[in-house]
Design brief:
The structure is a homodimer.
Chain A: E1 5-6, H1 16-24, H2 44-61, E2 67-72, H3 75-87, E3 93-98, H4 101-110, E4 115-121, E5 145-148, E6 150-151, E7 156-157, E8 169-172, E9 189-193, E10 204-209, H5 226-231, H6 241-257, H7 259-279, E11 285-286, E12 298-303, H8 309-318, E13 321-322, E14 333-336, H9 343-360
Parallel strand pairs in A: 1-13, 3-4, 3-5, 5-8, 8-9
Antiparallel strand pairs in A: 2-10, 6-7, 9-10, 11-12, 12-14
Chain lengths: 361, 361
């Protein structure tokens, strides 16, 4: 086939113009005699690429100077393990709000390092809602409060920033960063694997309020130390430079398209399109998440009859709509509609869903 | 300019045909409707790419089934920190043989975790040789012995595998893996950042004798646990899938070119070409490494007059020979001539060096 509308949850669709630029520069970057993937991370070419990507990301997300921005390999799960090592004393309390699969993963990583306290969890109800803020049981002297801004698998998204007082708030924004304006100053740490809404797989962005870098944390190797990474400008060792470059191209594209305000408008329209098809299907399609907590990024849904799952996926694929199979933890379908997914793609899916229902309802 | 001969130490030159294939597949991989960089790491397309890369790498390096092969983000420095966490008890002795900058880096990472013993070091002599095996002071109950097979900055390379008896030998092969046949069964762990001799930046290969995965190690998060990574087939979290794909293409290219035996012959010829120019220059060029320890991968050299450094680099660049500036820790020049550097490129550099000497000698 030619390029399809790709609803993958991550690694996910990139803007076609970004891929075209990467393609054009694959053998040689800007007359340098070599590709960016072949050039030293300490050479003038990549230093320029890296600095531009950081400046553009700071502009896109309105990141204050009082925050360090790191570009690292290892994925968001590695960040989850390093948060307590860098920001909590051994055995100190750390609060976790668990609203889906990834919140559980985050919690799992810290068990060896802190007294993890599940301040709130919606697991007993199948991760279909966000526990009301006044039910959270926060610790008195927690090192931080951690939550997952958008749960990619369960399709549950916080629509505002929870108020946790003076305790630093750490947010996993892997699947919703740059999808709407965000007041970074409300956070201690924001982190995100780039492969959903910021660009390519293989690079993770960690945004850290600089005063937190003064915390002693726990004994750790230098390469696991965010203070050292901040001092070394993410080049303590060889960074994933090609991935950083592609992230930079994607951020430039987002700025050119109108920035996070514009993507917030598009995300509202795109997600509304799909939820409307689901809610107006008379039960043919089903989304189980409380309406106020529904994700604008990942729309999981079930067909009323599981026997229709296979034909749905097959016919969707034939119609150029791919990667719609739900995560194995949940089953069903999932449409991930990050910034790079054009509205036309979501419209095509909505049309297909209505048509499929008509033929099979 | 058009594509130059790129002597970068890493990220380093890739085979042009590999870049051309990546370019052709940048917008769509094999009719999948999307690029590999956009497809789920758990989908059938990437699973095939990943499995083929592992099978090809096992073939290229003759890796026995009794070894696990991991493909991870984070770079070789992260591996250095995780080695004691996974394979040594807290505070246990671990022996380090230090023959250059990267051996020192490896040692630095483990200080919080083990009683690191410098079994041998050539630092006092400026890292110009390898301490004779019979001078090494190995610990009695070390968890492992670590050494750096090739020192990228100092241009010092072990030409045989050191015999350390029954203690597992851990080798950093970041800059010499796949450059010649290697008896993997002599090692406990072999690891390498891919960006020098295995392909692109952003992915690291760790080859582990499976019985070592039974060691308890030290308290650590799951994402820092090699046993968990081995069980999860390097997909405990989202791996750097695009980088893995490009590594796979590079390994396929190496197999097609004749494998490690062929690259050993080429490396011998390429490095001899350069060392001959240096040794026959009457002191105009200088390499300070003991002949038996000279690297076949990285040839550092100095001009007899530092004032010639700038003109040398400028004229080399104009002649299409780039990235020859030595590492800031050492100064001078360095030609890195990994597998992807064609013999014609090294010949062009040798010719240029002789010509430059004639004009400036």
């Amino acid at each position: 086939m030619s390029r399809a509308h790709n609803f993958s949850a991550g690694p996910a669709a990139l803007p076609e113009t970004v891929l075209q630029q990467a393609q054009a520069e694959m053998l040689e970057w800007h007359g340098a005699g070599a590709s960016i993937v072949e050039l030293s991370h300490r050479g003038p070419e990549f230093i320029q690429v890296a600095a531009e990507a950081e400046a553009d990301l700071r502009k896109l997300l309105s990141i204050p100077d009082s925050y360090a921005v790191l570009f690292l390999g290892g994925g968001a799960t590695t960040v989850q393990a390093l948060l307590p090592l860098n920001f909590a004393a051994p055995g100190q309390a750390a609060d976790y709000v668990v609203t889906g699969h990834w919140g559980k993963t985050a919690l799992k990583q810290v068990k060896p390092y802190v007294a993890a306290n599940v301040a709130a969890s919606s697991e007993a109800e199948g991760f279909r809602d966000i526990p009301a803020r006044d039910t959270w049981g926060l610790s008195k002297d927690a090192a931080y409060v951690h939550y997952t801004a958008n749960e990619t698998i369960h399709g549950v998204e916080f629509r505002d920033i929870p108020d946790v007082g003076d305790i630093p708030l750490f947010g996993d924004f892997s699947s919703s960063i740059a999808s709407e304006p965000l007041d970074v100053s409300k956070f201690g740490v924001i982190y995100a694997g780039a492969q959903k809404n910021l660009g390519p797989v293989g690079i993770t962005v960690v945004i850290i309020r600089r005063d937190l870098l003064e915390r002693a944390g726990q004994p750790r190797a230098e390469i696991l130390d965010y203070r050292a990474h901040a001092k070394g400008e993410s080049m303590l060792n060889t960074p994933p430079s090609w991935n950083w470059y592609l992230l930079g191209l994607t951020v430039k594209w987002m700025l050119a398209e109108g920035g996070v305000e514009e993507f917030a408008r598009r995300s509202a329209r795109k997600s509304t399109l799909l939820y409307d098809v689901i809610d107006n299907s008379g039960g043919f399609y089903r989304n189980e998440v409380a309406k106020a907590a529904r994700s604008r990024m990942n729309v999981p849904f079930f067909l009323h009859d599981e026997a229709l799952d296979k034909p749905f996926l097959k016919e969707a694929g034939a119609a150029g709509l791919i990667s719609l199979k739900g995560h194995r933890a949940l089953g069903g379908m999932r449409a991930s509609i990050y910034n790079a997914m054009p509205e036309a793609g979501v419209q095509a899916l909505a049309d297909f869903m209505r048509d499929f229902q008509q033929r099979n309802g």
